[in-house]
Amino acid sequence: MLSDREAISLQMQSTLDEATDPWGVKVERVEVKDVRLPVQLQRAMAAEAEAAREARAKVIAAEGEQKASRALKE
Predict the structure, then answer these.
(1) How far apart are CA 6 and CA 30, in angstroms?
(2) How do the domains of the chain map onto residue ranges?
């Protein structure tokens, strides 16, 4: 929802147009401005980001150990 607000706004506009056209009402603009995520979803997103950072750190550490091992071998 956060990354696709424009498409959601267009879809909402289309749905509103279908519902209001029979009454002669035209909705000129629809915008999704503020999205409030549930606390549980915020925590899940934070945990996912933390896991991704930890995974990158492990890869970097492993690459460093591999380079150090090669350097000692030489």
Answers:
(1) 9
(2) 1-35, 37-74
Report residue 53 as tokens. 């950072």
pTM for the structure as a whole: 0.49
Listed in sequence order, the residues at least 6 apart from 9 whose beta carbon sits closer than 8 Å to its beta carbon are 30, 31, 32
Which residue bears the tokens 């035209």? Answer: 26
- Residues contacting 29, CB < 8 A, separation 6+: 13
Tens digit of pLDDT for each residue in 7-50? Answer: 888 888 889 999 998 999 888 888 777 778 889 988 999 999 99
Question: What would the 3-class secondary structure string for the chain be?
Answer: CCCCHHHHHHHHHHHHHHHHHHHCCCCCCCCCCCCCCCHHHHHHHHHHHHHHHHHHHHHHHHHHHHHHHHHHHC
